[in-house]
Amino acid sequence: MLNEAPEKQKEVKPLTKMRLFRRNTWECFRRAVTPFLMYFFMSLIMIACQAIGNAWARIILGILCILAGAFFNGHLLYHCGVKHYCDFLSGEARRRDVLFGAKDTADHHPEREYRPWKGFVIGFFVGLPVLILGTLSGFFYDRLGGDISGSTGASFSQLALVMLAGWAIVPVTWFGSRTNAEGVPVGLKASPFWSLLFILLPIAVSGVFYIIGALRERDRRLETEARVERVKAAREEARQRAQQEAQQHIQTEEQRKKTLQSKKKK
Questions:
Q1: Angle at CA 45, nearest 5°, toward 42 and 48?
Q2: CA pair distance 69, 84, nearest whole angstrom
Q3: Is the dihedral of CA 73, 74, 79, 81 positive or negative?
Q4: In 3D, which of 61, 43, 217 has the Cα closest to residue 126?
Q5: pLDDT digits (tens, 9 = 90+) for 155-199
Q6: Which letter does DSSP use for residue 10 in this model?
Q7: In angstroms, what CA-CA distances link 85 with 44, 88, 225?
Q8: pLDDT digits (tens, 9 = 90+) for 74-129
């Protein structure tokens, strides 16, 4: 039997500031996962390159891996900016409809709309592991005076930093390692706190390319609208020209008939 019961519509909950904040936070965190994985994969390749004996080769290949991660980061955030700008235009149209009395619907997601600051927040979430693990590693480093060989917490935090965000800590290792009297490495010469500077890379790349993607989509839409207007104007001009030609043809035909009539009368 057919189900004749009317389909229930989802109840639209009021969008409070706290609910919107939670949604925006989750959206930015969700968009940061894929760029983080790109940096993670390039970090694995970067760590593998550190087994090369030549120091300059390790540095050059490491820099290329970091740049490759930044390239994928920019590419992903560019398209994210494009999508969020499309959602922003949809949200603007929906809000205009609501002002004119249309019923609000639950299928719109305001947290997915474009805002210039969202790209930078996404980049911050990409670099969040560096902030946490880099701070822990730097804390143990300064507390133990650079010798972390006897500290499980220091070794674990630094190992986690290398595995999860090698793109931030491996460049610090290029300054060399500390050794004890027996020549065994016990830590880095440079403090892991320097790895915190690399948080600026995903923040800057994500923020800039997110805005660029949105602006490109805006320009593309404006260009499309201008092209449509030009086509409409050309079509209207052609229609008016055809009307004028038809009117001139009618006038010419009437004049010809009048001329023939006058000749017959003569």
A1: 150
A2: 22
A3: positive
A4: 43
A5: 788 888 888 898 998 898 888 776 666 655 666 778 888 999 999
A6: P
A7: 34, 5, 16
A8: 999 999 999 999 999 988 888 887 777 666 666 678 889 999 999 999 999 999 99
10 Å Cβ neighbour count for 248? 10
Looking up tokens 């980061």 gives: 73
CA 150/CA 140 separation, integer angstroms: 11
Cα gap 43→168, rounded to integer Å? 9
Report CA Rg, the chain: 33
Residue with tokens 């994500």: 206
Which pLDDT value is given to residue 91?
A: 86
Predicted local distance difference test score (pLDDT) of residue 1: 44
Name, in order, each residue with C-beta under 8 angstroms of 151's C-beta and a sequence gap of 6 or more: 140, 144
Tokens of 120: 């930078």
Structure tokens at 169: 């800590």
Q: Burial level of 243, CB count in 10 A (0-12/13-18/19+)?
A: exposed
Q: What's the start-to-end Cα distance of the chain, in Å?
A: 89
Q: Are 39 and 126 in contact (CB under 8 A)?
A: yes
- Distance of alpha carbon 133 from alpha carbon 14, whole angstroms: 38
Partners of 187 in the beta sheet?
178
Instruction: Tell whether the model's pLDDT for residue 21 goes beyond 70.
Output: yes
Mean pLDDT of 237-265: 71
Residue 178's beta-bridge partner residues? 187
